[in-house]
Known about the structure:
With 300 residues, the protein is mainly α. It contains eight helices and three strands. It has two domains: 2-206, Alpha-lytic protease prodomain-like (Up-down Bundle); 213-291, Alpha-Beta Plaits (2-Layer Sandwich).
Amino acid sequence: MQDAAIRTTRRVAAGSIAIACVVLGIKYAAYRLTGSAAFYSDALESVVNVAAALVAFLALEVSHRPADKDHPFGHHKAEYFSAVAEGILIVMAALLIFREAWEAYQAPRLLTAPLEGIAVNGVATALNLVWAQYLIRLGRQRRSPAFDADGRHLMADVVTSVGVIAGLAVATWTGWLWIDPLMAALVAANILREGWKVIVASLSGLMDQAMDPADEERARGIISANAAGALEVHDLKTRLAGRATFIEFHMVVPAAMTVGASHDICDRIEAALEREFHDATIQIHVEPEQEIKQTGVPVV
């Protein structure tokens, strides 16, 4: 099962590279048809998409390596580095687009074959939309920061591409050439915002961010429902590392309980948590009843 998941991940990552290259070619063709600064900025963002897809592919390869002597908790966090790198690339692209927009504003360019360019760019936008939705859905299912960041970046690309197409249509209809560099600047502003969001989310993961509050509350309920025989569970801590979840807590049992009996409770709790949270690693520290705090998870 695990090998099949890894193969699927590799295929999707490789598919992202291929699609990014195709979209880049189509958008560059739209720019060559029209000479539009906005289409140039859209194509430049696709260069970032190609680079980001390559970085994501490498990060996913590393993240699926098994735990070893130097990395006993696995390599899951490699995906966060991919997402941070993608955010930095987005910011760099935004700065380059701002420069192109300013140059086009200072020296307005007459657009050529705008309708053909709009049609060509529309094909690339549609392709990005389909792939972005797939990546975001897969990222949520597998809790993959790399896929989620790549999908959200592509979705931002779709939004900006729609804006670029609309702006170019207005510029063609009205003859207001200043709209073209304005749309390029808006593209840069939008992807700069998206890049910042990607970086912040990834840094939170690198800082051992806890589970979502709703998920953590669900974990508490599962522990409570499966801890019969124990007296209390306290000091529950959780953290996320890419697709992996780490859950640890202290469990208080009667002082007279045998090691075997307390181990059975631990096994029951672990099995229930693993059914709910795939790729979860559970650490339970068993304590005697004098360690009870009356402030932890109630035991049903």
